[in-house]
Structures are given as structure tokens and as C-alpha cells.
Design brief:
Layout: E1 7-11, E2 17-20, H1 22-28, H2 39-42, E3 65-73, E4 79-88, E5 96-102, H3 104-142, H4 148-178, E6 187-189, H5 191-208, E7 212-217, E8 224-226, H6 228-244, E9 250-257, E10 263-269, H7 276-279, H8 292-295, H9 303-313, E11 317-322, E12 328-334, H10 346-358
Parallel strand pairs: 7-9
Antiparallel strand pairs: 1-2, 1-5, 3-4, 4-5, 6-8, 9-10, 10-12, 11-12
Helix pairs in contact: 3-4, 4-9, 5-6, 6-9
């Protein structure tokens, strides 16, 4: 542990420090004894507005959770930005390995990049929309009078404008998510209604491609408290990808309750699948698999990365299982009550508590 450059601490089930490496002591800027003390006592970690209990980030699950957006204050008064990974141990008497990575400099560079992307995307939206509308009108009005070569060129230009518009939309949404400017509203969500809506929206698209779109869910699914339009955005992206990368067979959407009282959504397809090597990079920014089947379809490489950002915002867990040429299944586990990774302060927390009391 002492050979690691990042701070590492082992907590017991009550959040008390059992082991800590030298980098953790450096982060404290203090030489005082920390073993046996509560982490909240020796290193108070804050979200955007309030102190955070790191163990609660796991929602009682057994999967590692990685989050950004946390800060601590050093003894000198400097604010340190952290990326925190909490890994529960598999034992019944659970312990938690916590990795605290100092990303202060990285965050400053990220903010500059995000501001540039946000401004550039905003400025591109209007001219792209005007150009797309002009090309569509030209083809609608004058297609019969145009030479075949001119029609081909106009249609090619239109396809590329549509692709650029989709890229700009993804960049705008991504910048808003990373700058914490997306509208967040926690309220009761019905999984059955949501699946019905997504199914109805994508049924014509699947039918046109000759695919079977199916839905599976119980009538008595639990109601969860979360941000519905985030969940919908994720499911729409997953279903869209399933249809895009499936030439024959079916795409299915389903939901089942979890033991903790949450919901587990899944989107399965019988498409081209994903190799083991590519699965490790699946949710990274601008990633697209380097094979001819993937390159034959358009895409920005931002969809799954954006899905992960939105899932992290509502403390949901997103992962995939796939085999090359055997299809893929994407899972989204939504907790019974979403605790925002980047909370909006006491008003949001009070609303969450009120809704929990109502249920």
C-alpha cells in the first residue's frame, strides 16, 4: 500500500480506519494517529455542498463504485479535488477499500476543455440546423428536376449534416452533465410506463429494419425515486444501439426488481456482439470498435460514455455482457432512492426525504 502514489484507506463496516498508507497521511497534511478513528473525523469529504459518507456510495451493493466531484481541505486551507473509488470486500463482515486520487490539476484542465466544448457545440447548433433544413427543402422541392449526380451529392451532404447534428447534441448534453447544469428532478418513476414509452418510440424503427422488438416486465414492479429523464435517455440510447448493431433477430427491453427494492433494466440484442478487448473500453469517450461491422454504421462514440455519466449522477450502475457475434446485453441497476453524486444541496435532499416518507 505504501508503494502506491494515491491515498488508500481500509474502513470497517462502521467507517473506521483499519489501515492507511503514507499517501493518505500526506493528504491529511498531519502526522496524528488515524487508526480506529472515523474517516469522517480525520478526513471530512464533501460533495458539492455537504459532507459525504463514502460507504453509502455503494448502496449496500458488492460492486466497486467510482465517483468524482468530491473535495477535502488540507491543513494549509487548500481545496483538493478527489476521484474516489470504494470497493466492498466479499466477506460477510464487510470492509471497504477506498482509493482517493488527487485530481485537482486534472479537474482544472477538464473545466477548460468542457467550457470550450460547450461554447463550440452551442455555436455549431444553429448553422447546422439551418443547413440541414435547406438541404431537406431543396431535395423536397427540386429533386425531380435535379440530375442524379446532384441528388446523390445533396443526399450525401444531408447524411453528414445529420451525423454532425447528432454529435453536437451529444457534446452539448455531455458538457451539461459534466458541468452539473442538467436539470435534476427526483420523483417516483414507474418502470412499466417508461418501458412502454420506449417500446412505442422504437417499434417503427425496429420493424423497418426487419427486427422483432419485445418487452418484458412484471405488473407489480416497485416504484423508485430517481430522475426519470436520465433513465429514459440511457434506455433510449441502449435500444437505439441494439437496433443499429443487429441485422437479424431481435432486441428486447426488460425490467425486474432487485433484492434491495430497486430496479434492474436490461436491453438485449442478437447483434454483432463486442469482443473482450473492446468491452474494457466500451464506456470511454469517443470509443468505437475498429471492425468493419461497426464502421458500417454511423455513430459519435459518445453515447455509452454519456449513459455512464448520467448513471453516475443518480447512483445507478451500468455494465454490459457480450460475446462477439453472439449479441449483447446491457444492464442498468437503479437504486430504490437515488442519492445524487453531484447533489443540488439541502432542497433536493429535503425533497428526497419527503418522497421517501410518502412511500
Amino acid at each position: 500500500m505504501n508503494s502506491l502514489p494515491d491515498a488508500v484507506v481500509l474502513l470497517d463496516s462502521h467507517g473506521k480506519v483499519q489501515l492507511a498508507n503514507d499517501a493518505f497521511s500526506d493528504l491529511l497534511r498531519s502526522s496524528g494517529e488515524v487508526l480506529g478513528k472515523s474517516l469522517a473525523e480525520v478526513l471530512p469529504v464533501r460533495g458539492s455542498t455537504a459532507l459525504v459518507n463514502l460507504i453509502e456510495l455503494t448502496n449496500g451493493g458488492d460492486k466497486p463504485v467510482r465517483r468524482r466531484g468530491f473535495t477535502v481541505t488540507s491543513a494549509a486551507g487548500a481545496e483538493v479535488s478527489l476521484e474516489i473509488t470504494v470497493t466492498p470486500s466479499p466477506e460477510r463482515e464487510r470492509h471497504y477499500f477506498v482509493l482517493l486520487k488527487d485530481i485537482t490539476n486534472e479537474k482544472s484542465l477538464d473545466q477548460q476543455r468542457q467550457e470550450f466544448i460547450s461554447v463550440a457545440a452551442h455555436e455549431l447548433r444553429t448553422p447546422l440546423s439551418i443547413t440541414e433544413a435547406a438541404l431537406s427543402s431543396m431535395l423536397l422541392i427540386s429533386k425531380d428536376q435535379m440530375k442524379p449526380e446532384a441528388v446523390n451529392l445533396a443526399e450525401q451532404a444531408q447524411r453528414n449534416i445529420v451525423f454532425l447534428s447528432a454529435l453536437v447534441k451529444d457534446l452539448t448534453t455531455l458538457a451539461e452533465a459534466q458541468q452539473d447544469s442538467l436539470v435534476v428532478e427526483i420523483k417516483p418513476m414507474s418502470a412499466a410506463n417508461l418501458i412502454e414509452q420506449v417500446y412505442d418510440d422504437f417499434l417503427p424503427v425496429a420493424t423497418e429494419k426487419g427486427l422483432k422488438l419485445t418487452k418484458h416486465f412484471l405488473s407489480n414492479l416497485p416504484t423508485v425515486l430517481t430522475t426519470e429523464h436520465f433513465v429514459r435517455e440511457i434506455l433510449e440510447n441502449l435500444v437505439s444501439n441494439g437496433i443499429k448493431y443487429t441485422d437479424h433477430g431481435s432486441v428486447s427491453i426488460s425490467a425486474v426488481p432487485t433484492p434491495a427494492g430497486g430496479l434492474l433494466f436490461s436491453v438485449s440484442d442478437t447483434g454483432i456482439g463486442i469482443s473482450a478487448a473492446n468491452q474494457a473500453k466500451l464506456f470511454t469517450k469517443f470509443f468505437r470498435a475498429e471492425d468493419y461491422q461497426t464502421r458500417q454504421t454511423g455513430g459519435t462514440g459518445l453515447g455509452l460514455y454519456l449513459c455512464l455519466e448520467l448513471a453516475n449522477r443518480i447512483s445507478a450502475h451500468l455494465w454490459a455482457q457480450s460475446k462477439l457475434h453472439q449479441g449483447s446485453t446491457f444492464y442498468l441497476e437503479v437504486p430504490p432512492v437515488s442519492r445524487l453524486a453531484k447533489d443540488s444541496g439541502q432542497i433536493v435532499q429535503a425533497k428526497v426525504n419527503s418522497l421517501v416518507d410518502q412511500l
